[in-house]
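In response to the reviewer comment on reproducibility (Comment 2.3), we provide here a single inverse folding case reported in full, input and output, so that an independent group could reproduce the run without further information from us. The structure tokens appear first.
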């Protein structure tokens, strides 16, 4: 017996994107941990089965009814542990195998879009992967699944019976609330606010190294940079002194770098946020993500301090309207996905702090410290950095706040940019952070971000105007 549920607007958007590229894994998302001890595979198999009754998404596939996409929830979950032997694989080969499992496409109509995979290199060396399609999960949901899986595994590995985990609240309640809010005065106020933000906006557009393909290929790569400890300390001090969040400082400075690279005095970029705002939804697996559009404005006199304070103000205002779905805003604006571009923005900026995760899992999920080994659920576990969702947009910047380390991932479309170009942008961001924290009243236009090697490099390829190239901005 099955039950049919309507989709949230975020899910509807994912259904549409899946239809555009059903053979792509670009919208798969997952989490992985390194296992550095022996695994009781029988207990792990049973643990995967045990968490099925707890989470409705582990029992849900997708279909169409009366021309609309719907979620079809069954009474039992077909998800089982997948085992892969990787004996003899070196680190790069193992990583490639993990990424292949993560990015294998999900047939949304035919099966539940989740997989739990154990990739074993030796009896005491394996990677445990939890992966799903974004229509059913998000980053926080993946940590919830891993938490429940390890809790069930710990009980089963001692010889106990399979735990009876209580079901969480229903994701359908979130969908119902979304509909009620949008059909209220508050919903109309949110629509008015975002319409005001987006009217006349232009996406931030970095010069590219290669011509833009006519269709998105979802081909990408990831560059990780670690923020030097002394710079991370200066960032926190500056934020505290200014009465703003570290996120506002990071985003404001990044927008400043974009201004210098693009010479756009008015541009928009996307900021992923969560709509998991109710304590009732705290343990629910589902897609609670929404991307809001922030507008950045710069002039010749704008200082780094101005940029940070303007960003902080926009972030505060946007939080009051965060429930308004981006897909509705894009539809109302008439924006469309043409020429291989997302509507309204091609660059996103996000920050994720491990402090938001389950306290016991934080050391395991802190990928800024990959060599840390923690005993949890009877296993020796280490964080495992798993780049994913590359090439969805031109550039996605993700700041990861670990226990004592700050790292930045630059996920980029590799058909548009050479790695050296992204490395240069990353260095400019770190340099701008250093300048902003030391001299916040310096005009952004006067900051020296480029060095002589940048100025002398050959012009970018792909038809980018010369006046948008770094050498022209000095």
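Designed residues, in position order:
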């Amino acid at each position: 017996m099955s039950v049919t549920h309507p989709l949230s607007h975020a899910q509807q958007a994912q259904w549409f994107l899946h239809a555009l590229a059903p053979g792509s894994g670009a919208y798969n998302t997952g989490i992985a941990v390194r296992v550095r001890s022996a695994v009781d595979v029988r207990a792990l198999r049973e643990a995967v089965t045990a968490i099925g009754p707890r989470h409705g998404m582990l029992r849900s596939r997708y279909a169409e009814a009366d021309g609309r996409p719907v979620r079809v929830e069954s009474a039992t979950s077909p998800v089982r542990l997948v085992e892969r032997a990787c004996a003899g694989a070196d680190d790069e080969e193992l990583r490639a195998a993990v990424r292949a499992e993560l990015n294998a496409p999900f047939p949304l109509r035919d099966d539940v879009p989740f997989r739990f995979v154990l990739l074993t290199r030796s009896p005491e060396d394996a990677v445990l992967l939890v992966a799903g399609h974004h229509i059913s999960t998000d980053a926080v949901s993946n940590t919830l699944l891993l938490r429940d899986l390890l809790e069930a595994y710990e009980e089963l590995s001692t010889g106990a019976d399979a735990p009876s985990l209580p079901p969480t609240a229903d994701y359908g309640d979130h969908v119902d609330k979304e509909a009620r809010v949008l059909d209220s005065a508050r919903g109309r106020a949110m629509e008015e606010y975002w319409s005001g933000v987006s009217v006349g906006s232009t996406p931030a557009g970095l010069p590219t190294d290669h011509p833009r393909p006519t269709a998105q290929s979802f081909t990408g790569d990831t560059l990780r940079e670690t923020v030097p400890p002394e710079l991370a300390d200066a960032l926190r001090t500056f934020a505290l002194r200014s009465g703003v969040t570290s996120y506002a400082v990071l985003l404001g400075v990044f927008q400043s770098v974009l201004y210098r690279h693009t010479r756009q005095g008015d541009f928009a970029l996307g900021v992923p946020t969560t709509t998991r705002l109710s304590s009732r939804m705290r343990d629910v697996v589902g897609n609670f993500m929404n991307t809001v559009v922030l507008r950045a404005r710069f002039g010749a006199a704008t200082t780094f301090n101005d940029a940070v304070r303007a960003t902080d103000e926009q972030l505060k205002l946007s939080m009051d309207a965060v429930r308004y779905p981006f897909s509705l805003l894009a539809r109302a604006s008439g924006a469309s996905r043409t020429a291989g571009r997302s509507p309204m923005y091609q660059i996103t900026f996000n920050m994720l702090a491990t402090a938001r995760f389950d306290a016991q899992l934080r050391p395991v999920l802190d990928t800024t410290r990959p060599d840390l080994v923690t005993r949890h659920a009877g296993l020796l576990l280490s964080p495992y950095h798993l780049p994913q969702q590359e090439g969805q947009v031109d550039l996605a910047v993700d700041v990861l706040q670990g226990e004592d380390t700050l790292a930045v991932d630059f996920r980029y479309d590799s058909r548009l940019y050479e790695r050296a170009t992204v490395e240069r942008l990353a260095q400019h961001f770190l340099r701008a952070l250093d300048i902003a924290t030391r001299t916040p009243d310096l005009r952004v236009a006067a900051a020296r971000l480029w060095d002589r090697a940048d100025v002398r490099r050959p012009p970018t390829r792909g038809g980018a105007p010369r006046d948008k190239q770094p050498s022209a901005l000095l």
